[in-house]
Structure formats: structure tokens, C-alpha cells
Design brief:
- This protein has 144 residues and is mainly alpha-helical.
- The chain has helices at residues 2-31, 33-50, 55-73, 76-79, 84-93, 104-107, 110-113, 116-119, 123-139.
- It is elongated and about 75 Å long.
Length: 144
């Protein structure tokens, strides 16, 4: 009989640990809903970025989407005023892995003034920009 109680306690302990792990996974899944939504939106923007006719507007949408993702993850005061080099530095600081320097032509600030900086971007670089944006969305880390 004593062995049965011990195994019962082990079973209760494992059940509690399992429930806690499931709750933690659910909380993480809900907390990352903005990432999943941004990746779906990026999938819609990508073909427009790759098409030279719609590239300018799509790049603007991509830059806006990255800012919205950051505004969800960090305090508005910390992110909203960032632009140009400060914005690029922020993105680089908060990416856990990978090189996102391809985002620099998109976010350097010139494209917001007249868009001329985006007209001459080669197709290969556009693919890299989209890949870098996808990488940042997936791998940015938010300090607690």
C-alpha cells in the first residue's frame, strides 16, 4: 500500500507539471499572435515588393508593418519616434539571430520623402529585404 501512495503522488506531480507547461505554451502562443498576423500580411506584401510596378507602395507597406509589429511588442514611447539610422539600429539590436542589414535601404528615411531611393533597388535585393523582414518578425526578442 505505501508504494501506491508514492506513485499516486508522482502521478499528481506529473499532472500538475503538465498542466503548467500547457498553460505556459498557451500563453506564449497567444502572446505571439501579432507575429503570426504580421507574417500573413508579409506574405501578401511580398509579391507586390517583387513587382517593379508596385514596389514603391509595397515597400512603404512593409516599412509600416514593421513599425506596427514593434509597437505591439514594445512601449510606444520607445518605438514611435524612431526613424532612419536609429530605427535600423533598434531592429538590429532586437534581432536574436541573422543579418537584417538588407532592411537598411528600406528604412533609411529617404523613401519616405520622395521614394526615389526605392526605384533602383534590384529584384534580388528586394527578395533579401523581404527575407530580412520575415527573419526579424520571427526572431526579434522583447526584453521583459
Amino acid at each position: 500500500m505505501p508504494q501506491t501512495w508514492g506513485w499516486g503522488l508522482v502521478a499528481v506531480f506529473l499532472l500538475v507539471v503538465g498542466v503548467l507547461l500547457a498553460l505556459r505554451a498557451l500563453r506564449r502562443y497567444r502572446a505571439n499572435a501579432y507575429r503570426r498576423q504580421a507574417l500573413v500580411e508579409l506574405n501578401g506584401i511580398e509579391p507586390r515588393v517583387l513587382d517593379p510596378q508596385t514596389r514603391h507602395d509595397a515597400m512603404g507597406d512593409l516599412a509600416e508593418m514593421l513599425k506596427r509589429v514593434a509597437l505591439v511588442a514594445w512601449k510606444r514611447e520607445e518605438v514611435a519616434t524612431l526613424s532612419g539610422a536609429a530605427w535600423i539600429d533598434f531592429l538590429k539590436r532586437h534581432c536574436e539571430a541573422g543579418d537584417i542589414s538588407a532592411l537598411q535601404p528600406l528604412l533609411d528615411g529617404d523613401e519616405y520623402r520622395n521614394g526615389s531611393g526605392l526605384r533602383g533597388i534590384p529584384d534580388a535585393l528586394c527578395k533579401t529585404v523581404v527575407s530580412s523582414a520575415r527573419l526579424w518578425i520571427r526572431r526579434h526578442h522583447v526584453s521583459a
